[in-house]
Structures are given as structure tokens and as C-alpha cells.
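Record pair follows.
FIRST:
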Amino acid sequence: TVREVARMGFAFLEVPLPGTFYANNKVDIAATLRSGSQILLGRNSITKRMIDQIERFSPCLAITAYEYFTPIIAKKLGIGCISLDNQHFLTKLRCAIPRGEMISRFIYALPLKLMFSKADHYFVNSFFQFPPRDSETTDVFPPLLRKDLMDARPADGEHVFVYQTSPTFSKLIP
């Protein structure tokens, strides 16, 4: 967390991020667009503040995880930028799109392509090993899981493990 990084003596700069908002376990497109628009309207001052901070320590590489500002600033400063995330499987990997999902894929992939695809190289983690569209700029690797999770075996018991990305789907929690 940011607090842990600060306690270790590292500097950090808090930056607003365009977020994805949910309602009834679906993306709330209107709220997501509102949030993104507000951040994009203030991007010049945010970019200037970030450039001032980053220039102070002269990095040779920027690492981003599905974040808007860092790749843009890295390009402006001539710094290489790599992206580590799972979202880019839609735009950087070759995968079949199920019938009936083309509109959903387009709605998700468009902002991903326009706003979050400015890095020089992509490391995409995925449970599925789809080939990259461009192996020069994209590598695919399995999710990074702790050894104890990898060693876990399914068993009947009292608990269920659920990976939940949206806090609005309360039906998963008894």
C-alpha cells in the first residue's frame, strides 16, 4: 500500500485515475464516463505535476498497471514504459470473441485502446495462454500466485474461495 511505501522512505505522488464504476454487477457506463471526463479535463495540471516529480529522480524505466498518466509522461520524457496487467488480453492477445459479446467487447476494448495502451511493451497475465498479436511488444504469462495457493487442492468443506472484482455483487457473500 501507499502507506507502507511511504514508511519505507520512498516518495510517491497520488494521482487520480479514471475508474470503472459498477451497479448491479454491471459496468455503470454513465458513472464511468463522468469520472473519466472529470479526470481528463484536469489532465494538463496532473501531467505537469507528475513530470515535475519524475524529472527530479531521472528514472530510466516506468512501470504501469492499467493506468492512464504514466505511459503518456514516460513518452514525453523519453523514458521506456512497460505495462503489467491482465486487461490488455482484449487488445494485445488473439482470442475468439463469443457470439453475442461483440458489443460488450467493443465497449470495454475502446477505452482500453484509446486511454490505456500507450506503453512500449506489455506483460499480460492471463489464466489462458492466447498468443500475442505482436510478439515484439507483448509477452503473456500466467497469473502470479503464491505457492500455497498453487498447492491448494479442491475439497468439500465449509468455505468457498471467490474472486470478485466488483463490490456491488453482494449475492456472492452470505
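SECOND:
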Amino acid sequence: SLVFQSSGASKFLVGYDSSPEGFRVYNYIANEAALFINGADSNATFAGTIDSGAITSTGKITGTELEGTSLDIDGVADISGTVTLSAGGNSTSARIDNSGNYLLFQVKDSDAGQPQFWMGNDTDAGVYVNASTHYWRDLSSTNVMQLSSGQLTVAGEVEATSLDINGDANISGV
């Protein structure tokens, strides 16, 4: 083992450790192993924060939390448990996109706005839901159906093989 000293006091010890077997850098100032590399599986354990540029791995990075200001996943992501997205204010949203077809969840669109959910494509066709109204849009961004306060409004014709009405019916026209 190598011992590094300053003014007669031990500061670091570098060397082999037999329990468990491995390589250890011991920090006498913090009174802990700053780095331990396990001889059985070559796993490295660091006592504090690793402050560097990009950290890469050919295997799995495990731990209880991964924190950063940006996360870019190229490839498949397998996320178990609850996913929480929080940006605060009006900007919290999640978009799942595949070649212009998407799902969009947005907490609110303005300070007075309501939570929103979009399922559609970049041509603005699809289903749009806010807290009080559901919209179905066609490729021309026209609302073809709208459900609000228990009333369904349809732009165009309703066609069915049968119609059952339980209660009063008010039908006008031919």
C-alpha cells in the first residue's frame, strides 16, 4: 500500500484490501473509502459525486436516482413505475411521437387553461380533450364531433343500423 501524507498526517492510502478483496483508495480526511474496485466482479464504488464530462458505459448504470438537466435516449426506453414530468407553470407536457402521429399530454395551455390530451397527427386530425369538452377532428381541422356537458354535437350525418331512444325524442326535418 502507498500512503500519501502532508505535514506528517496521513491523507490517502492506495492499495490492496483483503476484506472484501479489491483495490481501495481511502481518504483519511473524510474517513471513508473514496474508491473501491471489487476484485470479484470489477464493480467500482465511488464515495461522492463524479464530476466530469460525459460518462459512458457498455453495460447498465444502476442506482436509486439519475439526475440531470437533459436526458437524451437514443433507442428503446423501458421505464417501470410512475413517470413524473414537471416543468412548472404552463410548459409541463409530454409528447410521444412516431412519424407525425402522436400523443400529447399537457397540464394546461395557459394560466386559465384546462388540462389537455391530444391523440392525432401533425395535420391536426385526431381526438382533443380538455377538462370540459372532447373534440374529434378530421384532416381539415374541422370539428366533426364535440361532446360537452352531456351533449354530443355532430357535423354531418349520423348513420346506424338501429336506434334505441329511452325517453323523449325531438326529431325535426324530413
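COMMENT: The CA atoms of residues 108 and 169 lie 38 Å apart.
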